[in-house]
Write a structure and sequence with these properties.
Elements: H1 2-15, H2 18-25, E1 29-33, E2 37-42, H3 45-67, E3 73-78, E4 83-84, H4 125-136, E5 144-148, H5 154-168, E6 173-177, H6 178-190, H7 194-202, E7 206-210, H8 219-234, E8 238-243, H9 255-261, E9 265-269, H10 274-287, H11 294-303, H12 308-325, H13 331-345, H14 351-362, H15 366-370, H16 376-392, H17 397-403, H18 409-425, H19 427-439
Parallel strand pairs: 2-3, 5-8, 5-9, 6-7, 7-8
Antiparallel strand pairs: 1-2, 3-4
Helix pairs in contact: 1-3, 4-5, 10-11, 10-12, 11-13, 12-13, 14-16, 14-19, 16-18, 17-18, 18-19
């Protein structure tokens, strides 16, 4: 049996990415082999999920070829955890380990999200470091609050934290979206099962809540989450949250929740800079067993600047077009595949347009905006221009900083925050912004 599985593994190596083979296939073994079914032992439920979801056809094909049997059913036994996804084969080896039908606790985590396949760049480096430190137990940030725009990797990062903990500890974990939390609450109220609801959420070691801003404005949900948060926090249990906004900027969120969300560490994720976008495309292509040329990766990365999900969507499109047309991925194919799509996405204005409009409004030179001058008559217009670049373009903080003479991304963040704060209390600034936009016909 061992010889048979080693032969299968050698074939898996030829068909699967090296890193993926080492993660998903190297730790496996075969429990039994029948005429129609095979039972494979895996170290965790995540291995079973991933192999079943992404590699089942390859597994069946190789086992059929090596065993010379007409295998129709692949079953997975999770070793050492007494958990099974499907019953072992009827003709399982009598000496194989006994497997009890005990279901593992539901975590809500997706095993595809790991730290290994999260591309780190300047835009997300701090959030990544904080998440990994929490996962490894090096620090005690509680709560860990990660915020950023849509499609930038918040979900990936918090689930990677959960998957790391699931694979390296026996903690009771639960990942939910705040929408799922709200729906769970509503169902519990309808069926008079609030004790069960509270038991579910307040007996955890780690609670992950994605898009926590969704509970804002929902009075009962905020009330219940407030007490859940307090119970976990006071019991020294870890809370990890994500949102599209900084806690103080979430509208209709109760003040007491805003305060608690700020108790720990707040880390932001910004749109990825060009180099990170290219790295993301290359890694996603590698995961699909595809080699994407550098010029194609640069072409797509220069067009899609603010959203990782869009990058992945573009990659899927070029792979599909390549397959359907029977042509290799090339810059020519990319230009054809995205001709109409990128044309509609082109921005009306760019950083040069904004700088020109701001310089004209404040009666200074564009070169002043890019200079190192710190006089107020230069610094303030520069802050306004940087704010407009962040609002009106999909440029990353790093790209905006480069456009202003190589300024650091932290300078852009400072400018953005300063203008945002002034807009809340100064109508004159609001009129200034509107006038500059008007000159650009926005």
């Amino acid at each position: 049996m061992k010889s048979f599985w080693n032969h299968c593994k050698e074939e898996f190596k030829k068909r699967v990415n090296k890193n993926h083979y080492e993660i998903w296939f190297e730790p496996t073994s075969v429990v039994s082999l029948g005429d129609k079914s095979v039972t494979i032992s895996v170290p965790s439920s995540y291995h079973a999920d991933r192999i079943n979801r992404d590699y089942l056809n390859i597994v069946v094909e190789i086992i059929k070829a090596v065993s010379k049997k007409d295998i129709e059913d692949v079953r997975f036994v999770v070793d050492n955890t007494k958990e099974v996804f499907l019953p072992p084969a009827e003709n399982a080896d009598a000496n194989s380990k006994k497997v009890e039908m005990i279901k593992a606790p539901f975590t809500g985590l997706n095993p595809k999200y790991t730290f290994d396949n999260f591309v780190v760049g300047a835009s997300n480096q701090f959030a990544h470091a904080a998440s990994k430190s929490v996962a490894e137990g090096h620090v005690n940030y509680n709560p860990l609050f990660i915020y950023g725009g849509v499609g930038l990797g918040k979900t990936h990062l918090i689930q990677a934290t959960g998957n790391f903990l699931a694979g390296n500890s026996k903690k009771r974990l639960l990942y939910v979206t705040s929408e799922a939390f709200v729906n769970d609450l509503i169902t519990s109220l309808q069926h008079n099962e609030m004790n069960k609801f509270r038991e579910k959420y307040r007996k955890l070691d780690v609670l992950f809540v994605d898009d926590v801003h969704f509970i804002a404005g929902k009075e009962r949900s905020q009330e219940e989450f407030f007490h859940t948060f307090n119970t976990l926090f006071e019991s020294h249990k870890q809370i990890i949250l994500s949102s599209d906004k900084y806690p103080r900027e979430i509208p209709k969120l109760e003040e007491r929740l805003k305060s608690r969300f700020e108790w720990g560490l707040i880390a932001d994720i910004q749109p990825p800079e060009l180099e990170t976008r290219i790295a993301i495309l290359k890694q996603k292509a590698e995961e699909n067993g595809i080699s994407i040329p550098q010029d194609v990766a640069e072409f797509i990365a220069n067009k899609v600047k603010s959203n990782v999900r869009e990058l992945e969507g573009c990659l899927s499109r070029i792979i599909a077009v390549s397959s359907l047309k029977g042509r290799e991925i090339s810059i020519q194919l990319a230009e054809e595949a995205f001709k109409d799509i990128f044309k509609t996405r082109e921005k009306i204005i760019g950083i040069n347009d904004i700088q020109k409009a701001a310089a004209e409004y404040f009666n200074i030179k564009v070169s002043d905006l890019k200079s190192k001058k710190r006089e107020r008559n230069i610094a303030f217009p520069r802050q306004v221009a940087m704010y407009l670049c962040k609002e009106l373009t999909e440029l990353s903080l790093e790209d905006i900083g480069k456009g202003f003479g190589g300024k650091d991304h932290s300078t852009v963040i400072h400018s953005q925050k300063k203008i945002e704060n002034l807009l809340k209390e100064n109508n004159e600034i609001s009129m200034t912004i509107k006038q500059i936009k008007k000159t650009m016909e926005i």
